[in-house]
Specification:
Largest sheet: 4 strands, mixed
Radius of gyration: 21 Å
Helix content: 25-40%
Number of strands: 10
Order of helices and strands: EEHEEEEEHEHHHHHEE
Number of helices: 7
Length: 216
């Protein structure tokens, strides 16, 4: 799917881009940015398109265009239908749902015809624990480390059946300074060198693995 409408700079809200698969994806608000922070992190997402399609809908005997915010496509192994997404603050869509319901019903019909799902994402569906975990881990993206340290962590993780962060720290704290080791683990989790369950608290009880897709 290709972008159907270009996003122009605005003074009303924050716009920008988030890197993704060698390119970048535009957003028009901080809530859209946060939505993208989560979905661009997921290993089972294979495509994200902003402003993906424009449909026509009728209201009061007039025809209007409607362009939702994002198209999300998942790896076929997940058996998940592609998503067409509208990102709106909860207070805003609840206040205007009667006015907007006509275009949303039109989009529901379009999605049913094409085998998609239509969803409205507000802050209650975006600012979950997984999002908070990603934001936390992103702080460790630029740490200094040695490749030999990364190899030690990977070897240690592979030596357990269900290793936890605590297991790795117990084994390697005599070889790598503990605080640095924690930062290294967070870096490796953020860069997907090791996998973990995004919806679990990040502490020493968290199980990690060598396959980032295991918990998707």
């Amino acid at each position: 799917m290709k972008q159907s409408r270009k996003i122009k700079p605005t003074r009303i809200s924050i716009s920008g881009r988030i890197p993704y698969k060698g390119n970048s994806i535009q957003y028009e608000s901080t809530l859209e940015r946060d939505f993208l922070i989560y979905f661009t992190f997921l290993e089972n997402v294979i495509e994200i398109v902003p402003q993906p399609v424009t449909i026509k809908f009728e209201k009061n005997n007039r025809t209007y265009p409607y362009t939702p915010d994002f198209y999300i496509e998942f790896d076929k192994s997940t058996n998940k239908k592609p998503l067409i997404v509208e990102v709106k603050p909860k207070e805003l869509w609840q206040e205007n749902w009667r006015e907007w319901s006509v275009k949303w019903k039109a989009m529901l019909s379009y999605c049913k015809e094409h085998g998609y799902q239509f969803r409205i994402f507000d802050e209650t569906r975006i600012h979950h624990l997984a999002f908070q975990n990603i934001v936390f881990l992103s702080k460790y993206f630029r740490i200094s480390y040695k490749e030999s340290e990364v190899e030690l962590v990977l070897e240690t993780v592979s030596s357990f059946s269900n290793p936890t962060i605590g297991n790795v720290i117990d084994v390697l704290s005599s070889k790598i300074e503990k605080d640095h080791l924690k930062r290294l683990l967070y870096f490796m989790m953020y860069t997907k060198k090791i996998g973990f369950d995004l919806f679990e608290p990040i502490d020493e009880k968290l199980v990690v693995c060598l396959n980032p897709k295991e918990f998707n």
